[in-house]
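name: query_chain
kind: protein
chains: 1
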Amino acid sequence: MARQIWNLTMKIVLKIFIIMTLAWIILTPGTSLSQSVKVTGTWSETIDNTDLVGGAGTDLISTYESAANACDIDITGAAKKNWRVDINKVDTLWHTNLHLYVRRTADGTGGGTISGGTTYQEITDVSQTFFSGYDNLRNITIQHQLTGVSVQVGPNTYSTEIYYTIVSL
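structure:
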């Protein structure tokens, strides 16, 4: 009997680890390769039976958010230059019901200017503009959101990599 209960429990347990390996990506078409974007930080979320909306037999909480400063972005080598940061993801193992979003939560420091990216936008496998700015900036903080979590998404360790690319304008 105990084994049957354990098996039933495992059917309603979902573990999702979103591991974002955030790397330095450099891309400056038409100019020198001195500009760079450095992204530091990770977010992982373990979802289990404690995330059930109403106990056994109910669905899981469907949306999760990282801390507002889960990751930090530094733009360097862009003194007196306009730039934009593009974003896309490359899945290692990902369920089609899951959707990952990102937003900028701070303007950063350093005297430059920044615009865009303050509302959640979905990160897809197609590169798209995240935000833009002028001059060097440090400590631009970002937050992530995961939606689509449900008992319909099979238990597994889901992971994706997010790529941030700086483009000189």
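note: The beta strands are 36-40, 64-65, 71-76, 82-93, 99-104, 113-115, 121-122, 128-134, 137-147, 159-168.
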